[in-house]
Amino acid sequence: MTVSGKTFVITGAATGIGLATARMAAARGANVVLADISHEGEDAAADIRANGGNATFVRCDVTSAVEVTNLMSAAAGTFGGIDVLHNNAGIHEGMITEHFEFESMPIEVFEKVMAVNVRGAFLCSQSALPYLKASTRGPNIINAGSTAGFAGYPFGLAYGTSKGAISMFTRNLAVALAPFGIRVNCYAPASVDTNMVRDVSASIGAHVSAGDPLPANPNAAQLGAHLVRRIGHPDDIAELVCFLASDAAGFVDGAVWLIDGGVMAWRDTVEALGMR
């Protein structure tokens, strides 16, 4: 399994899963383009270069067609092409509102989550397509899904809806791009130790009252729902992304991979018996 020589474009790469993937891919010989709305990605790219990797940073808002076009052009201009697109940028409504319930959620919040999580993946995939079609190094797209796209969760209506959309976007895009030899896959984690998960958990914890359907300590609930009795680490997901991006995954296409510590294997039992 190797990604050496491939050029990755990774959105949402300043922190979390995106950053872990950038570091891992670069350490294995890939060229990495870190894209993020935050300038923290610039420091991350510099750190990768300081450790001997090939990396550059491009600031990009994935909801902007102009900025996405500039991102892909800059990536291809720097490294001579694009072989792997990792659509990792994403947000949860808990990052931008205290109104989690459907009846009180502002439509602007729902639209923002869908814009970043779904529109962003669409724009990036479409803009990267000419470069992926020109690639001779096993071109592929890897999307960020979630277990929230498989089952309903309290306080995650917009996020879960967006991740369900990403699962179907992955399958349909795999069909559309198969004639060009471009694979499209998706990973679907449960809780992963990232800034987003910590921030959203804290927001939910502050919001929950005695009568709500979540415990006051959502972190404990997350841990108890995982059969492996730990939440994920960004490197756990990065390993899967690097595999899917490699030629070793050449027979994997249109797949949505659960990487959830066993959460979905017994989620119905957990809910029914109150075992969290």
UniProtKB/TrEMBL annotation:
Pfam families, alphabetized: adh_short
PROSITE patterns assigned: ADH_SHORT (PS00061)
Keywords linked to the UniProt accession: Oxidoreductase
GO MF annotation: an example: oxidoreductase activity
SUPFAM superfamilies xrefs: NAD(P)-binding Rossmann-fold domains
Gene3D superfamilies referenced in this protein's UniProt entry, alphabetically: NAD(P)-binding Rossmann-like Domain
The keyword Oxidoreductase belongs to this UniProt entry's keyword annotation: yes
KW Hydrolase (keyword) present: no
InterPro entries the record matches: NAD(P)-bd_dom_sf (IPR036291), Sc_DH/Rdtase_CS (IPR020904), SDR_fam (IPR002347)
Sequence similarity: Belongs to the short-chain dehydrogenases/reductases (SDR) family.
Protein name according to UniProt: Unannotated protein
Organism of this sequence: freshwater metagenome
